[in-house]
């Protein structure tokens, strides 16, 4: 049998994981811990108990559930006199949620049952295996807590787009820079566009596609950039994936690009993705490498 302190630590770790992620993963059961509450009801009681004054809108974000479903569940818990809803002084339309005395007791019973069930589950498992389980759950928790990568195609030129392009120009010492309004014109043009890579709400990368008027059925990949702190996460590949998918759907047959010998990591990435050397196709004075890829 594990020591009391060791078992308590393991129980708390698994219970924290269970509370935080089982609802998000869709593991909804009719009854939680064989009690009188669904998993969603138990999670709502926990969140309100942990943060009295929380709002329904915040609960929707935490549990990633439909607002109507949350509203109906809160109404049920309120009718059962487990949850109290008080109008906010700042906005009377917003209700601040707290547990009643009965709600506190119900949450304490859920916690006690959760600890008892988890202890029974862990007890027959070897100590090394228990630690492996806890470490694995902690690793899953870390992964799920990371900001998720999104690739967004712009419909208008934004301050974020201008900022990351300015960073790119300085990082690569670009001479021929896009003038004010040029990105919006690219966005508006067929077989063209600009994509931003977002980690959470932070812009961490970009790429531009510009139609090549001089070559029929061709567009040009430009301004591929990932901020240093976000490198090593395959963000450049995700940007190029989004760009190429859009280009195929737009009827583009070839994507061209230029680079220079000092950007060997980028050149290696292009080659890996099927770009081949080609003859010079523009008058960029900084370019020493010219490549193209046929889209299939």
How would you characterize the overall build of this protein?
The protein is built from ten helices and ten strands. It is an alpha+beta fold. The chain has two domains: 4-145, Orthogonal Bundle (Arc Repressor Mutant, subunit A); 149-294, Gcn5-related N-acetyltransferase (GNAT) (Aminopeptidase), CATH 3.40.630. The strands form two sheets. It has a seven-stranded mixed sheet, with helices on both faces. It has a three-stranded antiparallel sheet with strand order 1-3-2. α2 crosses α5 (101-122). The radius of gyration is 27 Å and the shape is elongated.
Radius of gyration: 27 Å
Mean pLDDT level: 88
Estimated share of beta-strand residues: 15-25%
| Annotation, overall tally of beta strands | 10
Low-confidence stretches: 23-30
CATH architecture annotation name of the largest domain? 3-Layer(aba) Sandwich
List the helices and strands and how they pair.
Layout: H1 4-21, H2 39-50, E1 54-55, H3 56-63, H4 67-79, E2 83-87, E3 95-99, H5 101-122, H6 127-145, E4 149-153, H7 159-172, H8 182-188, E5 193-199, E6 202-211, E7 218-226, H9 235-249, E8 254-259, H10 264-272, E9 276-277, E10 289-294
Parallel strand pairs: 7-8
Antiparallel strand pairs: 1-3, 2-3, 4-5, 5-6, 6-7, 8-10, 9-10
Helix pairs in contact: 1-5, 1-6, 2-5, 3-4
């Amino acid at each position: 049998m594990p020591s009391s302190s060791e078992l308590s630590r393991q129980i708390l770790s698994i219970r924290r994981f269970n509370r935080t992620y089982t609802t998000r993963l869709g593991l909804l059961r009719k009854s939680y811990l064989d009690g009188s509450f669904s998993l969603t009801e138990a999670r709502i009681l926990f969140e309100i108990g942990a943060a009295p004054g929380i709002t329904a809108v915040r609960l929707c974000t935490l549990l990633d559930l439909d607002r109507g479903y949350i509203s109906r569940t809160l109404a049920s818990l309120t009718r059962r006199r487990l949850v109290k809803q008080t109008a906010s002084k700042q906005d009377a339309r917003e209700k601040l949620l707290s547990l009643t005395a009965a709600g506190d007791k119900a949450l304490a019973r859920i916690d006690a049952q959760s600890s008892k069930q988890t202890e029974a589950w862990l007890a027959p498992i070897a100590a090394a295996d228990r630690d492996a389980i806890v470490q694995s759950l902690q690793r899953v928790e870390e992964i799920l807590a990371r900001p998720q990568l999104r690739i967004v195609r712009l419909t208008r030129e934004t301050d974020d787009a201008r900022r990351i392009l300015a960073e790119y120009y300085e990082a690569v010492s670009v001479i021929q820079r896009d003038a004010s309004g040029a990105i919006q014109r690219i966005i508006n043009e067929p077989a063209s566009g600009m994509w931003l890579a977002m980690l959470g709400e932070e812009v961490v990368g970009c790429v531009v596609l510009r139609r090549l008027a001089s070559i029929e059925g061709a567009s040009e990949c430009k301004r591929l950039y990932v901020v240093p702190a976000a490198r090593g996460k395959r963000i450049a590949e995700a940007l190029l994936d989004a760009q190429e998918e859009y280009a195929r759907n737009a009827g583009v047959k070839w994507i061209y690009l230029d680079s220079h010998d000092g950007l060997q990591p980028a050149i290696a990435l292009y080659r890996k993705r099927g770009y081949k050397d080609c003859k010079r196709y523009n008058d960029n004075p900084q370019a020493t490498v010219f490549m193209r890829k046929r889209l299939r």
